[in-house]
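Predict structure. Chain length: 141.
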Amino acid sequence: MSDLRINSWLVIPASDLTWTAARSSGPGGQNVNKVASKVDLRFDLSGSTALSPAVKGRLRALAKNRFDKEGRIVVASQEHREQPRNLEAARARLASMIAQALVAPKRRKKTKPSRRAKQRRLNDKKANSDKKRNRQKPTDY
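Prediction complete.
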């Protein structure tokens, strides 16, 4: 298997990737009982040196339900009838997940409402309170 190119500057070495084939439950008719066309691609996240710790953390959060007992990310593909096409589909899906993890989330800028917005909110509350008070029956003391 060859290296997995994510973008122009990031390549996951083939030594971090392993794959196995199994019988697929997908399309194929009687052929599905004879040919192992399903592909399980496994990526050793903790052992990989190609990704920074921050990217590994984001990828761990993205793939939280795809880990096996050894802590590797498992990407399965059985949508095609041929094993090589399923392997390429699984590699593309893994590359897409890694590319998504490369993008750091934007930090939230703290904002506070302007003085005018605060005053408008208080005026609206007062108007609503007066409206409801005017609907009540007058009390006789």
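Summary: The CA atoms of residues 55 and 103 lie 8 Å apart.
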